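Q: For a teaching handout, I want to show students what a protein-ligand complex looks like in token form. Below are the inputs, and the small molecule is BGO. Please produce the holo structure.
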Amino acid sequence: MKTFALAGNPNSGKTTLFNALTGSTAHVGNWPGVTVDRREGVYKKGSEKINIVDLPGIYSLSPYTPEEIVSRDFILDGRPDGIINIVDATNLERNLYLTTQLMETDVPLIVALNMMDEVEKAGDKIDVKALERALGVPVVKISALKETGIRELMEIAAALPDSRKGVSVLEDTMREKIRALKEFYDGEGLSSPLFRAVKLLENDEAESKRKGAKELLEKVANGCDTEAVVADGRYQYISEHFSQAKIKAAKEQFNKSDKIDRVLTHRVWALPIFAVILFAIFHVTFAEDFLYIGAWASLGKGLPALDDLGLSDGMAKFVGIFYDGAVFSPGVILFNVFDTVFGIIAEAAGGA
Ligand code: BGO
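A: Here is the structure, written as tokens, with BGO included.
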């Protein structure tokens, strides 16, 4: 039976997807030597059963937190048949930082673009083909919560080739440095040499400890702060390539709140509009002639004053809350309601 690792940022929906995939087959243990839960279960709904190992939620494959260490060790040395990288589609750029690292391993990889129900609810769209081109791995839209797209995800995952050669989004900017370090790792016969080479450029603690690695890095780096260049390179690639996949959506959104924003924040009209809105709020709240119906209805003659209506005392008191020759604004009506109610209470209390 094939084993797939489930990897992703905290809150990307990993637990929800794991539960949807494994149901009652799930069981919890511990990763050796650390108090981090190891959850495992079997996906049975496809043509072949697949063992799913849920890795802890992580932002990076650096070896610093226990969660990062167990995830990295399992991916590099646990020999999974593939990685399902769950990505929160509502936070695409941030989540893809981890994806750029998973891409550098030699492990077959598929991206599950989760929370698509939220994306669609917001009227957004994501260009999956553009994402696939930029990542070089299959991308499948899913909603772990609504359990949509999961069968397709698992069918494509099951059909992934047995091996993959890692690729790095940094190969354009740091080609020579990466090549020199990768040669070193090729010679060491370790798994995922490209991943380790880039990690060494990031001054990764685990890779720097390897015999001869630090000296080689110093020589290759030649005074350059490679760690910063790597982080910059990842973010730059993400904003250049992956934001494009979303821009379409942003343009469509432009029809709605952005259009209103464009008017309300216009360099000329913004202040007059603001003044009108403010005036309207004050008028609605405080005006004694909020709706001066009479002026419009009878060409300036106005409606009769309250005293001229010939109402009984009780009725005049009630109508007077809302009207006296013009309809009062809600603020004035509210004031009158309180005034009348407290007047009645005060009168009753005085009498008592
Ligand atoms: C709460 N769509 C939507 N809309 N939400 C999803 C999806 C999806 O496809 N997948 C997951 N979520 P985890 P990690 C919650 O718990 O699986 C939601 O950390 C809440 N809880 O339901 O836990 C999921 O394992 C109260 O949301 O992620 C969960 O990776 C109010 O994403 C959250 C709102 O999922 C994280 C949400 C008490």
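A: Two things your students might notice: Residues 175-240 form one domain. Residues 8, 10-16, 57, 114-115, 117-118, 143-145 surround BGO (CB under 6 Å).
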